[in-house]
């Protein structure tokens, strides 16, 4: 079990309020991702749940029981840190065994769990090595192994992949996803990378300045962002936000259109612009187009082998069904 | 571009540093030479001492016969090791608190502790002497261990504080998440990670306590007298006995010199720890 409920949880550092009172429920077995720009309070929120920071007000309940004043060790949660936080003087085996040793678990049970975790994480050959002799990906797996063996109520991940290179990150993303499917344990994952959030989450919590901007599944957030901030944050490349007369035509203060929802033509279209920088990814091309009123540059996502070059004039037509409308207060209209 | 070093500069550097090194080591070398001479030979002109006199172990035998070297040696060991270990017991929690849960005035407390090292010890000699007399711990190993521990405590705390600061807080948080109590966190995670730093702290403090002569001479007479008092006893109102004094000095400094020699790598590493990232 691992249902976590935050009720009016608030965090202040001295006089500075980093998290205004906030409510959030994470259901048992859910993969929840906290995402937001740096300094938005997502790590602080995770540390409050872990018990590494004290709340200034409000309650944290784990499986219905009040855990607000419990020390981290008593909350039944396991955490994987950004820096892996392995014990450098212990072998991989001892690192993984540490939480069980602290729980005074019988040695044969410890060994059984170590072997099974090592097998699941491909660490069997490295059990006698020290963390310093492992690669970044292996270290991260040891950190995950150390979390698994406790069979916690929930796993907390604090930007666990940001120290890995891009290729390894994709691999580890899959592994963590697989792990979640297998264990069916609640996982809370903090990241600033919206791609990680979109690909891994059952539920995304978008945070800005300690405030929850929106909670929803990845596709809900993509299809119906509640405000301009979420609209701009979720999706890559970013949604184009257009103000002024073009927006007024749709009775909105701002309209948003995703780069993949714009057709490019060299002959005709709704807006005219000049091609700026093109990013060729092979499968797709991102073209930055200048001169569209109310949005400069406008980013368009199109097919990989499009034949336009810097300085060409192109015409753009947005898909009218996929235009997002926002009011002057930044909130979604309709 | 690296600075070019000519051969001439290299030779000049070698000669200068060699000469300086020799000059600094010379007093100890001369004591070593004198300790192998008779009293009559020891006061002759330097060249005669070196080339026109016999070498003998008589002074060592005489020193051992007159005063019990091993008793003083054991006192030195007990006082220096004891004061360092007791100091560590107090300093580890203190340094932990200052490094990981600093308060507003932590830096001030650290500076204040260091400032006690700037006070001339003689300024507190009389009060401490009287306190020791009233407590009945004059000339006792316990009293001396205590006073040396107090003297070295600021250094131990400062050094440990520096080493603890180098340990990433996330590792200690991980231990907390893994269910370690504060005691277990310190024993299983913090201390093993700080062992290189602690080793050099221990070495330095043993050396400092071993060589400490002000308090050991003023607060002891016979029972608890360590090797410093043993050397001093050879400078008497009847005159200086150079050969015996030298032999006593060599016997007193040899253990710590040998220990320092074997542990110099550890000491240098510990003292420069954290200086270069």
List keywords for this structure.
heterodimer, A: 334 residues, alpha+beta, Rossmann fold, OB fold (Dihydrolipoamide Acetyltransferase, E2P), six-stranded mixed β-sheet, five-stranded antiparallel β-sheet, 9 helices, 18 strands, globular, B: 277 residues, mainly alpha, MetI-like fold, 2 domains, two-stranded antiparallel sheet, 15 helices
Structure description:
- The complex is a heterodimer of chains A (334) and B (277).
- Chain A has 334 residues and is of the alpha+beta class.
- Chain A is globular.
- In chain A, α2 (92-102) crosses α3 (107-120) and α2 (92-102) packs parallel to α4 (136-148).
- Chain A has helices spanning 42-50, 92-102, 107-120, 136-148, 166-183, 194-200, 218-223, 228-233, 245-248; strands at residues 4-13, 16-26, 31-35, 57-62, 65-66, 77-80, 154-158, 186-191, 203-208, 211-216, 240-243, 254-257, 262-265, 271-280, 284-290, 298-303, 313-318, 324-326.
- Chain A has 2 domains: 4-230, Rossmann fold (3-Layer(aba) Sandwich), CATH 3.40.50.300; 238-326, Nucleic acid-binding proteins (OB fold (Dihydrolipoamide Acetyltransferase, E2P)), CATH 2.40.50.140.
- In chain A, the strands form 4 sheets. Chain A has a 6-stranded mixed β-sheet with strand order 6-7-8-3-9-10, with helices on both faces. Chain A has a 5-stranded antiparallel β-sheet with strand order 13-17-14-15-16, with no helix packed on it.
- Helix content of chain A is 26%, strand content 31%.
- Chain B has 277 residues and is mostly helical.
- Chain B has 2 domains: 7-60, no CATH class; 67-233, MetI-like (MetI-like fold, Orthogonal Bundle).
- Helices cover 74% and strands 1% of the residues of chain B.
- Chain B is built from 15 helices and 2 strands.
- Chain B has helices spanning 7-35, 39-42, 46-51, 58-66, 69-100, 106-115, 125-135, 141-166, 169-177, 182-193, 195-211, 214-218, 227-232, 242-262, 264-271, and strands spanning 235-236, 239-240.
- A two-stranded antiparallel sheet of chain B has the order 1-2.
- In chain B, α8 runs antiparallel to α11 (195-211).
- Chain B is globular, with a radius of gyration of 23 Å.
- The interface between A and B is medium-sized, with 22 and 18 residues.
């Amino acid at each position: 079990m691992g249902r976590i409920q935050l009720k009016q949880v608030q965090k202040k550092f001295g006089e500075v309020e980093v998290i205004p009172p906030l409510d959030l429920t994470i259901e048992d077995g859910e993969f929840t991702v906290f995402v937001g720009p740096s300094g938005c309070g997502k790590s602080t929120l995770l540390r409050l749940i872990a018990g590494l920071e004290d709340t200034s007000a409000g309650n944290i309940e784990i499986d219905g029981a009040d855990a607000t004043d419990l020390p981290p060790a008593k909350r039944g949660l396991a955490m994987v840190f950004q820096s892996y936080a392995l014990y450098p003087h212990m072998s991989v085996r001892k690192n993984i065994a540490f939480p069980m040793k602290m729980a005074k678990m019988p040695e044969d049970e410890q060994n059984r769990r170590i072997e099974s975790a090592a097998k699941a994480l491909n660490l069997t050959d490295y059990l006698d090595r020290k963390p310093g002799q492992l690669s970044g990906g292996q270290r991260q797996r040891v950190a995950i192994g150390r979390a698994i063996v406790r069979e916690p109520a929930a796993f907390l991940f604090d930007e666990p992949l940001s120290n890995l290179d891009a290729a390894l990150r994709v691999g580890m993303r899959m592994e963590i996803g697989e792990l979640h499917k297998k264990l069916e344990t609640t996982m809370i994952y903090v990241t600033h990378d919206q791609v990680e959030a979109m690909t891994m989450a059952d539920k995304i919590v978008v945070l800005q300045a300690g405030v929850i901007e929106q909670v929803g599944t990845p596709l809900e957030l993509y299809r119906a962002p509640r405000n301009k901030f979420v609209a701009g944050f979720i999706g890559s490349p970013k949604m184009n936000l257009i103000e002024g007369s073009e927006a007024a035509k749709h009775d909105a203060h701002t309209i948003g259109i995703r780069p993949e929802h714009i057709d490019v033509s060299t002959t005709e279209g709704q807006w005219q612009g000049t091609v700026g920088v093109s990013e060729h990814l092979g499968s797709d091309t991102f073209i930055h187009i200048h001169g569209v009123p109310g949005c400069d540059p406008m980013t368009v996502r199109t097919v990989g082998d499009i034949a336009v070059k810097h300085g060409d004039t192109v015409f753009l037509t947005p898909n009218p069904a996929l235009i997002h409308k926002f009011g002057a207060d930044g909130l979604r209209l309709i | 571009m690296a600075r070019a070093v000519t051969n001439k500069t290299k030779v000049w550097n070698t000669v200068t540093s060699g000469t300086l090194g020799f000059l600094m080591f010379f007093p100890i070398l001369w004591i070593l030479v004198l300790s192998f001479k008779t009293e009559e030979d020891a006061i002759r002109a330097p060249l005669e001492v070196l080339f026109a006199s016999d070498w003998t172990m008589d002074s060592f035998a005489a020193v051992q016969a007159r005063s019990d070297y091993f008793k003083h040696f054991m006192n030195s060991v007990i006082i220096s090791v004891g004061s360092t270990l007791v100091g560590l017991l107090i300093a580890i929690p203190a340094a932990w608190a200052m490094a990981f849960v600093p308060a507003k005035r932590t830096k001030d407390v650290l500076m204040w502790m260091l400032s006690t090292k700037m006070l001339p010890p003689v300024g507190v000699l009389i009060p401490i002497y009287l306190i020791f007399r009233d407590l009945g711990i004059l000339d006792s190993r316990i009293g001396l261990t205590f006073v040396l521990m107090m003297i070295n405590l600021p250094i131990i705390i400062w050094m440990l504080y520096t080493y603890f600061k180098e340990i990433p807080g996330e590792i200690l948080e991980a231990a907390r998440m893994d269910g370690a109590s504060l005691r277990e966190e310190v024993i299983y995670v913090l201390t093993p990670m700080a062992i290189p730093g602690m080793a050099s702290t221990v070495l330095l403090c043993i050396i400092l306590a071993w060589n400490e002569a002000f308090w050991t001479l003023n607060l002891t007479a016979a029972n608890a007298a360590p090797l410093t008092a043993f050397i001093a006893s050879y400078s008497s109102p009847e005159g200086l006995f150079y050969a015996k004094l030298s032999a006593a000095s060599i016997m007193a400094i040899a253990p710590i010199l040998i220990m320092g020699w074997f542990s110099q790598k550890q000491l240098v590493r510990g003292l420069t720890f954290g200086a270069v990232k």
